[in-house]
Design brief:
The complex is a heterodimer.
Chain A lengths: L4 H10 L6 H18 L34 H5 L5 E2 L2 E2 L7
Antiparallel strand pairs in A: 1-2
Helix pairs in contact in A: 1-2
Chain B lengths: L8 H9 L5 H19 L2 E4 L1 H14 L11 E5 L26 H8 L3 E6 L33 H8 L5 E6 L5 H7 L2 E4 L19 E6 L2 H11 L17 H5 L7 E5 L9 H16 L3 E5 L7 H16 L18 H12 L2 H14 L5 H24 L2 E5 L15 H5 L6 H6 L3 E8 L5 E8 L4 H14 L18
Helix pairs in contact in B: 2-3, 5-6, 7-16, 10-12, 10-13
The chains are: A mainly alpha, B alpha/beta.
Chain lengths: 95, 493
Amino acid sequence: MPLSLEEVRHVAALARLELEPEEERLFAEQLGAVLEYVRKLEELELDGVEPTSHVVAVEHPLREDRVTNRPRPEELLANTPERDGNFVKVPKILE
Amino acid sequence: MTDPFRLSVREARRLLDEGELSSKELTRATLERIHGTDEVLGAFLTVCEDLALRQAEESDSRRGRPLSPLDGIPVGVKDVICTRGVRTTAASRMLESFVPPYDATVVERLRRAGAVLVGKLNCDEFAMGSSTENSAFRRTRNPWDRERVPGGSSGGSAAAVAARQCPLALGTDTGGSIRQPAALCGVVGLKPTYGRVSRYGVVAYASSLEQVGPIAREVWDCAAALGVLAGHDPADATSVPREVPDYLGVLERPLGRPRVGLPSEYFGDGIDPVVRDRVLSAVEVLRELGAEVGETSLPHTPYAVACYYLVATAEASSNLARYDGIRYGFRAPDAKDLLDLYCRTRRLGFGPEVKRRIMLGTYALSAGYYEAYYLRAQKVRTLIRRDFETAFSRYDVLATPTSPTSAFPLGSRLHDPLQMYLSDVLTIAVNLAGLPAISLPCGFDDSGLPVGLQLVGRPFEEETILRLGHAYQSATSWHRAEPPLDQRGSTGG
């Protein structure tokens, strides 16, 4: 069953994604089909089954808190779309 | 001597060691081959001509000293892996002009081993796809039939190696993205155990599933590459501090009697009968090599694709939140406020499959649905892992087809996401369980398209599948077949 356009718009807003009206219709249908497919997971009895979030047990890794200064600020800022000296520029957020 | 660009890593290594060939000659031949074929093939997004020749010269000046097996060897790197000073796009408009200020750990290890970076390889945008048709920049064609896909998402890597554009390439495998294109292009692709290889500097898609691995024409080449790539990295909290075996050293050791299990679910409906036939013939070869073959079962296989798409898209929606137009990458012009800037940047910067997966993942994680979808999928993941644990209590290796079909025509699955997702039905469970697996060429179908055999091993037992794969290649010649590609990249047949 397709998602409603309202649901699609709600999810798009959560994802900070602007969609074209045509995309909204397409995703309503395609996501509906995929969600219907994944509903087969409901067939399984999962009481008492622990979820897996990591396949390998890794000890909590800790390291010394040391400044390495690499990459350098200038290198990091080189990819910034808009900047002013060492500041990243964004549209005005306060009136 | 054969054309240098036709040499495998192992063959080139021998000639380099004997002084019959210089890295500069090899690299030149490789670059010429790329220039001569890539207009049609479309495997590369960036070719690093100057850098490669400089690195080759440096390698030649080291000759005479003990060198790593990759020293002087041309390597192509999937464009989701960061390369310092070399554009890294993830095949997305979002990162079209991104030049990383650092190397991914795997690239740093390649550089330290003396490998020569010849260029960055095409892929599906942010590694999302099974055909390399989701690249924002170009289509890669299958060298065996240019009207067919090379597989994905590491389609550029597999096509380049098959077409003799470079003897070795790096790919990433989140749900089969190394093994499936390797199978569809007739080359070898290795996905290491999760945690074996550092993911630092790899553009993140689904962090709990993806691993970097090599694509080459011989198992020997993959073993050599894994020896360079593997090992603990303090910069990646998911990398495992565990000793790295000498993969090349164990390759020739006697096989003994490895127990090989055939999971019945991987040979049933939905598998092309010709694919099944070729894979079963390959299993016969394994039996002749001494393997003890038996049937087994992975009963939760029918749930793997559903489980994967919930876990992977949930992680993707979270990982891709960083593309907001603020610190790096594309920024939409003329936004009226900050929210508008985020939303428009993401609308213009992402392609349709990326948006689809962000939407699915956001939905699965959103209030009211988290338990029904994401948490449920993580529990099913536990059942899938347990299936493998049970099978590996009786068997050392599992053998399956890699892809249910051979390479499909360009465009044929592009508008049916579900059908496309099912392209990875035989590889996905391995990622959910974090296991090592390799795909090997094991024959051709009736249209002359390659078929792949998948061998799956226990966690951190890459040696076992490498040794079995190496023995298989020593007994067969499928991996030596070359696609009918002339210098202009046209394919015959």
